[in-house]
Every structure is written in C-alpha cells, then in structure tokens.
Amino acid sequence: MIVWLNGTHGAGKTTTSALVRQLIPDSRVFDAEKVGETLMDIKPALPWTGNFQHWPPWRPLVVETARHVLDYAGGTLVMPMTVLVEQYWREISAGLAGHGIPVRHFVLHADQDTLRRRIEGDTVLGPSSFRLSHLEPYAEAARTWLHREAEVIDTTHLTPAEAALRIAEVVKG
Fold this sequence. Notes:
By secondary structure, the chain is α/β, with parallel strands linked by helices.
C-alpha cells in the first residue's frame, strides 16, 4: 500500500511522513522528489520546464520506483509529495492501480496565512520564493479537484504528531 501525503509546501508533509512511518508497522518513507532530482542530474540537462514534474518521464518513474520497492520490500510506502496538476495525479494513481497497488491519498491542508508563516519562518530550509510561489496553485487545485480526490487533514491547528496519528488511525482502520 501507498500512503500519499499531498499538499503544498509548509503543510507538514515531510515531518508528518516520518511520524506516520513510526506509527504504521513495516512502512518506509519514499520521497518522489528524489526521482526528480535524479532527472535534474542528467547531463546535458533535459529541456527545462520550470518543474521536474512537467518532464514526462517523472510520473512513470515514480510509479515504477514505488512498484519495485514494494515488490522488493513489501509493507507500506509513505510518500510525501506535492502534486497539484490533476493530469499528473491521474497518471500516477492510474499507474499504481494498474499494478494493483492500493493508495490512500491524503492532503495536508492549512490556510494560506498559516502556510505563508510556516514557509517564511522555516529554520531548516529558510524562506523560499519557490515554495511561496506554490501557494496560489495549491489553492486553485484544492478548489477544483484535489480536495475531492483525497482525505483532507487540516493541519492549521494540528501538530505534525497529531496529523500523523489521524492518518495512521485511518490507514489502520
């Protein structure tokens, strides 16, 4: 099974995924951003699109990497990854379904002011114009498709530990 943690930057995906992994037996965290970083390391570089998710190889490589890891190690993959383009989510979820891999899709949500404060106050990564630039695309995705496609966990007033516990309780049933 895959537990996919979606949501924009500052929602708490990375921190929450590590905590979810501790609460779900036989689980591992797989950050699909690493697939994008691998593609970014190709020399000469692939044609730049502004975001590695726009490269057509990224989505099937995420699916195949997850499939191979699950075939090899079993258990549950906890995947913290923002996907705000509906077509990309459809490609990934259809690819995983085609391999018979169940996905529990969660969106870690917070209001825009909270997200902005978290990004601007991030002591690990520091403030980031890239991360801030995703707030409006996230809000648009949330309004148009994303919140219909996932179980929404509002993290505005939750700690990452509280969010992780809610997710683990839902997954364990």
